């Protein structure tokens, strides 16, 4: 490098490039996060404002069995969504990757995904309601009508529907890079198909599998919209609880404690993910 | 085995398309309730266009998306450039901050921004919850995605090209506009497109940061759905689906031609 190397010029360049973005992240990411942390130790005032004293009382409330059930619901939804994404998405990624017109198939996978999130959730309400398509279909066979909506099942279906592409896309990237020679080698060494798959194919797809699972599990744990619309008050997740505290109940301190809890849970999941995947694994999540 | 895979794929695609197709079909259905098709009508579209608020919400949505994408793309591109080119104290910490909007659930991001705006209003007297706060919120998650996408592109570039420009006497900004930016352009465009999509799709952050008079289309759909299924929402959804399909098909066609 030539004249650019003087320290003052360097400092100037760092400030011009990194400065605005860094300032933004400090103001709108770091500061709000610290405020939530602070608020979680404060107390709800008589008009819903945040007041002293500081304490751990909001966190103590998390141990209430009522809330523990909500956490269990969220965890169950996250795990079931991930499991079902695996069942639907894993074979699909292979089919797309080996198809001659795979860019078209990827395009068709993305198309519903780029439809507004709320519309995708709403569509399930239309399908599952009492006079919906599913009940009309079953009614033709003299069955039902069944109360599919509102229910946990409805929430699960819509969550799976909205997050499935998050699972397939990183998995597809892993399958596309697969070294099929390893599979042939396994066959040459006398492995039967099942064994060959578990030893020569599955391990190669771990990066995509883990990235996909993280991308489905985390938003599924944190959603409140799907449970709000398809659970209609009967299915309560952590996200709904947080929204209630910041909305109707106006107990921001408790809502902040719930947010910190959810964030801590997500960070723990990511920490475990990064341990398995290495530091670079985080980049696969974008 | 191959047939089984094909059947599975067919069923998954059916699962992906059926709900949307049902909405599109119902938007032309005369019947107000239920899925029995009683006849073709455009009444719901007429009712939708007769409502002046819908146009206002659509314009709000576009305004938020365009302004926030523009700001986030500039901030994110510069940030990516600085992160790739320079070493400075606190760089690792900055990376951690970048990942926060990517991994933290929307609802946590929404309430933390709400808390920030509420406290700032208490102490400084501004900002009021409005379209401005929605835009600030959108930029916040967009910046992270733009930076990471542009950074990935910059890492692929050969630093020798910039050095050559400097050796030929180009100043810093000349190198940036004539060499670095054109080379990074696919990354910048991809980042901007992602940011735009994220903004148009966002409901949760908008929900927590929007004040009265700052309704966007997703907020409108949400409040309508809370009141019950309505053919007007079917019509609006169909229009949005059509617009996104057209947009994606265009992006797909342009992308194919370039490759």
Short description:
In chain A, 71% of the residues lie in helices and 1% in strands. Chain A has helices at 7-39, 57-61, 65-97, 102-113, 117-128, 133-139, 152-176, 181-188, 193-201, 206-222, 225-230, 238-246, 252-277, and strands at residues 43-44, 50-51. The longest helix of chain A has 33 residues, at 7-39.
Polypeptide structure, described:
- The complex is a heterodimer of chains A (286) and B (259).
- Helix content of chain A is 71%, strand content 1%.
- With 286 residues, chain A is mainly alpha-helical.
- In chain A, a hairpin with a 5-residue loop joins strand 1 (43-44) and strand 2.
- In chain A, helix 3 (65-97) runs parallel beside helix 7, helix 3 packs antiparallel against helix 10 and helix 12 (238-246) runs antiparallel to helix 13.
- Chain A is globular and about 70 Å long.
- The two termini of chain B are 33 Å apart.
- Chains A and B meet through helix 1, helix 3, helix 4, helix 5 and helix 10 of A and helix 1, helix 3, helix 4, helix 5 and helix 6 of B.
Keywords:
heterodimer; A: mainly alpha; B: 259 residues; 0% strand
Count of DSSP strands of chain A: 2
Shape of chain A: globular
Radius of gyration of chain A: 24 Å
Q: Any low-confidence stretches of chain A, pLDDT <50, length ≥5? A: none
Element-level helix/strand string of chain A: HEEHHHHHHHHHHHH
**Termini separation of chain B:** 33 Å
Pair of chains with the largest interface and how many residues each contributes: A-B, 86 and 91 residues
SSE order of chain B, as H and E? Answer: HHHHHHHHHHH
The best one-word shape of chain B is globular
The largest β sheet of chain B comes out as: none
Low-confidence stretches of chain B: none
Order of strands across the main sheet of chain A:
1-2
How far from one another are the termini of chain A?
33 Å
Largest sheet of chain A: 2 strands, antiparallel
Mean pLDDT of chain A: 86
> How many helix segments of chain A?
13
Proportion of residues in helical segments of chain A: over 70%
Helical/strand content category of chain A: mainly alpha
């Amino acid at each position: 490098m030539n004249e650019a190397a003087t320290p003052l010029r360097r400092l100037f360049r760092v400030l011009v490039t990194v400065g605005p973005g860094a300032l933004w992240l400090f103001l709108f990411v770091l500061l709000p996060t610290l405020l939530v942390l602070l608020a979680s130790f404060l107390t709800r005032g008589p008009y819903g404002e945040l007041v002293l004293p500081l304490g751990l009382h909001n966190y103590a409330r998390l141990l209430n069995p009522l809330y523990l059930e909500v956490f269990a619901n969220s965890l169950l939804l996250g795990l079931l969504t991930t499991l079902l994404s695996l069942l639907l998405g894993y074979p699909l990624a292979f089919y797309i990757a080996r198809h001659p017109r795979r860019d078209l198939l990827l395009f068709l996978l993305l198309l519903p995904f780029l439809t507004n999130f709320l519309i995708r959730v709403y569509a399930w309400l239309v399908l599952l309601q009492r006079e919906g398509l599913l009940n009309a279909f079953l009614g033709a066979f003299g069955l039902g009508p069944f109360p599919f909506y509102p229910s946990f099942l409805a929430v699960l279906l819509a969550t799976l529907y909205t997050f499935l592409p998050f699972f397939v896309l990183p998995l597809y990237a892993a399958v596309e890079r697969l070294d099929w020679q390893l599979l042939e080698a396994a066959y040459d060494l006398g492995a039967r198909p099942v064994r060959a798959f578990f030893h020569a194919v599955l391990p190669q797809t771990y990066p995509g599998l883990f990235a996909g699972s993280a991308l489905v599990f985390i938003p599924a744990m944190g959603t409140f919209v799907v449970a709000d619309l398809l659970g209609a008050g009967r299915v309560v997740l952590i996200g709904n609880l947080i929204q209630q505290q910041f909305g109707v109940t106006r107990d921001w301190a408790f809502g902040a404690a719930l947010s910190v809890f959810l964030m801590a849970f997500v960070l723990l999941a990511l920490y475990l993910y990064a341990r398995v995947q290495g530091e670079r694994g985080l980049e696969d999540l974008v | 085995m191959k047939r089984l895979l094909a059947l599975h794929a067919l069923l998954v695609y059916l699962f992906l398309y059926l709900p949307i197709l049902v909405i599109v079909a119902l938007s032309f259905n005369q019947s107000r309730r239920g899925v029995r098709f009683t006849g073709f009508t455009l009444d719901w579209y007429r009712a939708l266009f007769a409502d002046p608020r819908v146009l206002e919400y659509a314009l709000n949505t576009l305004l938020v998306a365009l302004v926030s994408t523009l700001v986030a793309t500039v901030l994110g591109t510069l940030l990516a450039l600085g992160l790739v080119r320079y070493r400075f104290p606190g760089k690792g910490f900055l990376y951690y901050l970048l990942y926060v909007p990517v991994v933290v659930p929307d609802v946590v991001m929404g309430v933390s921004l709400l808390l920030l705006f509420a406290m700032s209003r208490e102490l400084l007297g501004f900002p009021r919850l409005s379209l401005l706060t929605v835009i600030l919120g959108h930029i916040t998650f967009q910046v992270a995605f733009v930076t990471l996408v542009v950074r990935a592109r910059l890492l692929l570039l050969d630093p020798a090209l910039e050095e050559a420009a400097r050796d030929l006497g180009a100043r810093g900004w000349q190198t940036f506009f004539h060499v670095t930016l054109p080379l990074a352009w696919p990354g910048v465009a991809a980042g901007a497109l992602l940011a735009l999509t994220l903004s148009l799709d966002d409901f949760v952050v908008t929900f927590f940061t929007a004040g009265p008079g700052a309704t966007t289309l997703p907020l409108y759909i949400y409040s309508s759905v809370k009141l019950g299924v309505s053919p007007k929402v079917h019509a609006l959804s169909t229009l949005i689906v059509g617009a996104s399909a057209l947009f994606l098909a265009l992006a797909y066609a342009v992308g194919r031609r370039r490759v």
